Sequence to fold (285 residues):
Amino acid sequence: MKSVVITGATSGIGLETARVLAAQGFFLIGIGRSVENCKRAEKSIFSDYPKAKIKYFTADLIQQREVLRVAGEVQDCLSENCDSALDVLINNAGCVRSWYTTTDEGYEQQFALNHLAAFLLTYKLLPMLKKAKGRIIMTGSKSHKGTKVHWADVMLHKGYNPLKAYKQSKLCNILFARGLNDRFAGVGIRAYVVDPGLVNTDIGNKNTGTLVNLIWTLRKRHGVSPAVPAKNYAFLCECDDPPEGLYYYLCRERSYSRQVTQENADRLFVLSERLCGISYNDLDL
Ligand SMILES: NC(=O)c1ccc[n+]([C@@H]2O[C@H](COP(=O)([O-])OP(=O)(O)OC[C@H]3O[C@@H](n4cnc5c(N)ncnc54)[C@H](OP(=O)(O)O)[C@@H]3O)[C@@H](O)[C@H]2O)c1
Fold:
């Protein structure tokens, strides 16, 4: 049985993708930030697919110690149920913050959740992904275009703006996927980015101020159902031969920002290793 780990699998795009992959027979490991939402998601998938193989774990992925803790639980679950092999990791959890807010480590929260949590979780699960010649999928966004990584102040401590921070974090998703392919395609691991398009979810209504809340409430009405991007994840998970592209929208390869260069990908990789206190070289894959 193929296995998939999905972060942010309790609502929106992540929940719908979890439902589709559970229906298709994947052993699904979902990660969500609250016990209540994890229980609700699990119940909702079981009520549609009573024979689904599902396990949910709770973790606040904004905090690195929580990423490390849940990674240990996921590793144990994969060794008990899937012979320590992971076929797909979907780094999907994401947030928007109206104001400059930091994690316990002092990192800006959008950068911490939308990029660093994925960087650290992938590191912990990479040996199991290698075993399955697995795939890693980031939930990116078209909004990565028209921005750059602000290397001199990556946390945007000076002149924070929610959209600027969000766009930068989504550019980081593609740079990270590029960095993974540059390093690990040779051992059979492939990384991708799904651009879900504008999707009608509550992301901009969670932990945001009045203005961001109002703008998102008006904007999301034009969004598609999460079922639309869920097909794109299913496509990337199920193709027997790994697709060759990097960035996908509606199951087709698309162009992405010219900022996605090997130089920028390497620079982000080194910076992220430092911010997470890890070195991918230590994995000895
Ligand atoms: N909606 C769009 O138009 C759109 C467009 C482009 C890209 N995206 C990306 O799509 C991804 C999913 O977003 P969505 O639109 O589906 O929004 P969503 O419904 O709010 O989903 C976000 C998921 O992340 C979880 N999450 C949030 N903070 C977390 C934390 N600290 N620790 C662990 N999990 C956490 C949420 O948990 P709860 O259920 O408990 O809130 C939820 O499961 C994000 O990466 C977002 O940037 C969305």
